[in-house]
Amino acid sequence: MRAKTRKKIATWLSYLCLLLASFIALFPVYWTITTSIKQRDDTFVFPPKFISFTPTMKNYDAIFATRGFWQTCLNTVVITLASTLLCVFIATLAAYALARSSRFRGRGSLEVGLVLIRAVPAIVIMVPLFQIISQLGLYDNHLMLIVMYAAVNLPFAVWLMMSFVEQIPIALEQSAAVDGARRWQILIYVVLPLILPGIAATTIFVALLAWNEFLIPVMLAGNSAKTLPVFIAGFISTRNLDWGPMAAASALAIIPITILTVVAQRALVSGLSSGAIKG
User: Fold this and answer.
1) pTM over 0.90
2) Helices 196-211 and 265-272 meet at what angle, rounded to 10?
3) What span, in angstroms and rounded, lies between the C-alpha atoms of 196 and 263?
4) Residue 276 has what pLDDT?
5) Domain boundaries 61-276, corresponding CATH code
6) Which residues of the chain fall below pLDDT 50?
7) What gap in Å lies between CA 95 and CA 185, rounded to an integer?
8) What is the domain partition of the chain in residue ranges?
9) 241 bridge partner residues
10) How far separated are the first and last CA of the chain, in Å rounded?
11) Could you write out the DSSP letters of every residue in 228-243?
């Protein structure tokens, strides 16, 4: 009886911890959404109104009427999609090459370098990049941002994809080679179908990083290639902080990436748990 009681207590404590963690994680989202539908006076009232307030859509109307908002949304979607596809494509090829090149001299140093490059603060490389890109006439250019996003996220994508490729039994590729398949055929018809969950997981993580990227567009883009994070930050000034429209823009920015995560949830879970492949 004591063992059963302890097990029940441990279970309830686990549920309590999960509920607490969920509350901490979701409360900022709830606060953003409620702030986006509050009157301006309700936003600054103390103690704050969590439920008892009169909702309004004025903040969303102000966002939709803001000049350049829809162009900014289009910029963000195009840059995120293009940079993610480019990054995942290159990362898949690079990860396969590294995972199957066990005799490659300096492979260990290269893998460590991939992690260290991603760990370097982005502001360290932004100043020289700003000078180079300005001199090349690529400032505020969509293609430049796509390449920059892909380059910045590439080390993380390669490192993540390598863990999936290494789970594929080498015997499968050797059997295909014995049957006469070439290297590119082995990659397309043998390896890729087995690492699709990993590609899906990597795509979601890279898309999240690209969608939320702030430093690159704020340094290297102007009005033509402005993205949503920069647009949202534009509500902060030295004289005013317009919480309502900023919260409305933030709530709208949450929707696309939330839909992507929900739709690809099964592939994401499968990709993160696919380390149990057996030969």
Assistant:
1) no
2) 110
3) 15
4) 42
5) 1.10.3720.10
6) 275-279
7) 17
8) 1-56, 61-276
9) 236
10) 43
11) HHHHHHTTB-SS-B-H
